[in-house]
Amino acid sequence: MYSHVVVGAKEIAVAQRFYDAIFSHMPLDEQGIDKFERPFYRQGKQRFIITLPINGQPATAANGGTIGFELASSEAVYAWHQAGISNGGSSAESAPHIREDGKCVAYLRDPTGNKLCAFYQTQGE
Known about the structure:
Strand 8 and strand 9 form a beta hairpin. The chain has two helices and nine strands, in the order E-H-E-E-E-E-H-E-E-E-E. 26% of the residues are buried. By secondary structure, the chain is an alpha+beta fold.
């Protein structure tokens, strides 16, 4: 549904290591560095981009914001969460689990503090 998401980072290399790890659990069509020297990840027409803030101010996480990713299996959700923890992220909200509605969910904060969610609908689609 989105065309692109851009998150600010305090340190591009630290953020890229984190995002390379979690995106390894998702099918991507392309990843690389764009003409503005920003790491990006593309699936179809959707792009996820990491950048230093253009205004020169410090990068901060969105208060109340969450970026959600749909993954292909519950196993991928758990692996995504572990990859994030192992690469500078921290667990957010609750441990990965399957909710009563059948949705397997995991929440992370990236090294800058942006909140991310991975999910897979296990039943009741």
